[in-house]
Structure formats: structure tokens, C-alpha cells
Amino acid sequence: MQNQDLRLTLIQSDIYWRQPAANLAMFEEKIWEIEGQTDIIVLPEMFQTGFTMEYEGVSEPMNLTTFKWMRQMSAQTKAVVTGSYIVREKGHVYNRLIWMQPDGEYKSYDKRHLFRMADEHDYFAEGTDQLIVEWKGWKICPLICYDLRFPVWSRNVNLAYDLVLYVANWPAVRVSAWDALLKARAIENVSYAIGLNRVGSDGNDIPYNGHSGAYSFKGDTLAFSDKEEIITINLSKDELDAFRAKFPAQLDADAFTLN
Predict the structure, then answer these.
(1) What are the CA-CA distances from residue 104 to residues 97, 99, 139 (Å)?
(2) What is the CATH number of the domain that holds 101?
(3) For residue 70, what is the enclosing H or E element?
(4) Which amino acids are annotated catalytic?
(5) Residue 225: beta bridge partners?
(6) Number of domains present in the structure of the chain
(7) Domain limits at 177?
(8) Angle formed by the axes of helices 20-31 and 65-77, to 10°?
């Protein structure tokens, strides 16, 4: 039986600095610009503020404005909506990715690797658990920005996932690393790898030039953009399964466990 292809839409956009209401309105407009039905709508890291350590006044508890907005967008589009924003919970603050499904069910992932060079580790609590979700017959591992630099955390043990997905605010000055590492994550994990970055400049005058991309299990470029736009990609599970059957590199992977 033929597997279902997966259709993802990446919204590569500038972000209003620390203005949640403006960003939700802007992303809602862009979501309604998507042509045709899609399975997953991907928003950047900290999509309602930009990458800020000043969380006072913009962080939210769960089940408040941004969470409810994601639930509404997912229900209306009949697609998963995912991206990260600043969540406070039980005395801690998290850079938290929400995976929101059209039926209102959701999963969350807290960023594991906090960006030390911006002192993110001084303001946010780190995540402890990897997340793998199932959607439309696909297994997907969503991660956040700096996680991309740490291949052990992204390791596809026993082919646990078919797609690794990164949402980011990755500055232009280091974008060559972003390009190289996204392709590497695809090849080494025998999976698709997709990264969504932002464009524009943030409130700290840090420029971003996108380079959102999708890469096949062989490292082929399926999509790439360095400008503000909506990018839709179709992924084939049959092609992935056929390659894995022909080239079962996972059988020779080193065994290990995460502490």
C-alpha cells in the first residue's frame, strides 16, 4: 500500500520585536495566504516576540493567548501548527515548541540546548525530553535552533523518526553552519531534515537571512529560500522507505543511550 506524502508549509518571515499581538495578526494573515491544503504549518522559533531574553511582559502561561491562537489556526486550517514561544510554568520560563493538532490535542518540546552566547541559559530552563510525534503516518522529531549543533540529541536511534524539523532564529553571520548542519542531519539520520529560519533584523540589530531549507535523506536540496516567503514542500514516504531498504546504514550505527 502506498504511503501518504507529507505536505509542509514553512512561513519564513520577519518578526515584530516583542509584539505578540502584532505577530499573531501577521502570521494569521500569512497562514490564510497558503494555497491549497497542507498537513503541517511551521512557524519560527519565538514567533510571537523574536529571540529575546527579556521575557517579562511577553511570556505566557499555557492555555492563554498564543496557545489558543495556535489551536484556532490548527482547527480552521485542518493542519498541524507548530513553532516555539515563551512559556512560564511552575516558576520556570521555557522556550517551548507547541505541536498543535486540528482536534485540539497537542504535544510540547522545551528547547534542550540553550544558546549560551546570548545567555539564554541564564533566563530559561532547559528541556529534558526529546519529542517524537506521529502525524499522517509519519514520525517527526521537532527541535529548536541551537539543538541543530548537537548531533547526539538529534540522533535517529533505530529509525525512530522520518523527519527532523528545526525552528530557528539563526543569525546571518553564522548561516553557513546552518546550511551545512541541516544537510548533515539529513544524511547521518537517513531521514528528511527541514529547517525554518526567520528574516529581517531583531531589536538587537541582529540580521537574519533565512536559508530555510528542506533536504532529502541523501542530502539533496528539495527547497531553499533566502527571502520572506511561504514555502510548501511535499515529502515522499515511499522514496524514504525504498532508500532505507536499499541502504540500511542504521544497522551499523553505534549503540548508545542519552543520560
Answers:
(1) 15, 10, 19
(2) 3.60.110.10
(3) helix 65-77
(4) 45, 111, 145
(5) 212
(6) 1
(7) 6-248
(8) 0
Take residue 42 and report the three cell numbers written for it: 511551521
Q: Is residue 79 part of a domain?
A: yes
Cα 83 to Cα 143: distance, rounded to the nearest angstrom: 10
Evaluate whether residue 204 is within a structural domain: yes
Q: What is the grid cell recorded at 257?
A: 543511550
The answer to whether residue 256 sits within a structural domain is no
Examine residue 55 and state whether it is found in any structural domain, yes or no.
yes
pLDDT in tens, the chain (259 residues): 578 999 999 999 999 999 999 999 999 999 999 999 999 999 999 999 999 999 999 999 999 999 999 999 999 999 999 999 999 999 999 999 999 999 999 999 999 999 999 999 999 999 999 999 999 999 999 999 999 999 999 999 999 999 999 999 999 999 999 999 999 999 999 999 999 999 999 999 999 999 999 999 999 999 999 999 999 999 999 999 999 999 999 999 998 777 6
